[in-house]
Specification:
alpha/beta; D-Maltodextrin-Binding Protein, domain 2; 3 domains; 10 helices
């Protein structure tokens, strides 16, 4: 049976995070030779080369990326175990307010509009009820592997993700829908013919949810401008540069210089939800955050 000790897992993660054996040694308080020896031992037991070594440092191989995802998730579970065991002991001892609630970081990955308009209220409620929990939020573009990839790689405990037939919950994760949001036409306020304007879009706009609908809209031209994010799109629309088709979360707090027009009952929609690992789904902190997310989304 192949087993790596937590110390060996920490060495692998440190090498990946710092990009080299010397830098990892400095972070860990070890010698470079000890780090190299540890990595070679891990590679021997796992039966794969985990890092490409070169003059510029060390970078994970494909096998190394898989090992690192497992290493980060395993180390995180050890941290959660310690937190929840202490919380259980505190509750059993009747330590007063807050007893039985874990303390420490809760790592969250969210795409921009969710981080701006969905998370703040949920985190406010969470920290009010459980002040020992410290949310750490990372903004991740919801393209490619997106926020779910952060959870799979062990960098986040929970991800706020777009879910659907074209981007389902990965089989290694569990999750659920929080909000079903519709798309709307956004254009300069008071424009007499907004559908005649150029179309502005951005890479993160979930066109996979709108593709069939988009193809049936003869009035919608191909996008002539691609912005960096939805905030830039709103700003450009507000200055009269063009129109856009945007989801509801992106339109929270839209400036008065833009007008939002409903696209009717056949408008496209997308599902926004959460994803986490099966192990962390039962942890107290993740469960508490999911409850708050559902409360504000409902």
């Amino acid at each position: 049976m192949t087993e790596l000790a937590p110390r060996e897992l920490r060495v692998l993660v440190a090498v990946a995070d710092t990009g080299g054996f010397s830098a990892a040694a400095a972070v860990l308080g070890m010698t470079q030779s000890a780090v190299s020896h540890s990595v070679r031992g891990s590679e021997r037991r796992l039966g794969a080369v985990l890092f490409d070594r070169g003059r510029s440092g060390a970078s994970p191989t494909p096998a190394g990326a898989v090992a690192l995802a497992h290493a980060r998730r395993a180390l995180r579970l050890l941290e959660v175990m310690g937190s929840e065991v202490r919380a259980a002991a505190s509750a059993a001892a009747g330590a007063g307010a807050g007893a039985g609630v874990p303390a420490g970081p809760l790592r969250i990955a969210a795409f921009r509009s969710a981080a701006l308009h969905l998370l703040p209220r949920a985190l406010g409620r969470l920290t009010e009820r459980h002040p020992g929990i410290v949310p750490e939020v990372r903004i991740v573009r919801e393209v490619g592997r997106g926020t779910a990839g952060e959870v799979l790689d062990g960098r986040a405990d929970l991800g706020i993700a777009t879910l659907g037939t074209t981007s389902p919950v990965p089989p290694e994760l569990v999750g659920g829908v929080l909000v079903e949001e519709g798309y709307a036409l956004v254009h300069p306020a008071g424009h007499p013919a907004p559908r005649s304007l150029p179309l502005i879009d951005w890479t993160e706009n979930c066109t996979s949810y709108t593709r069939d609908w988009w193809a049936g809209q003869e009035w919608l031209p191909p996008a002539t401008v691609r912005a960096e994010d939805d905030g830039t799109v709103l700003s450009m629309v507000g200055t009269g540069f063009g129109m856009a088709v945007m989801p509801e979360l992106s339109l929270v707090g839209a400036p008065p210089s833009v007008e939002i027009t409903d696209l009717g009952p056949d408008r496209p929609t997308r599902s926004v939800g959460y994803v986490t690992t099966p192990e962390l789904a039962s942890s107290l902190a993740v469960r508490a955050l999911i409850r708050e997310l559902r409360a504000i989304a409902g």
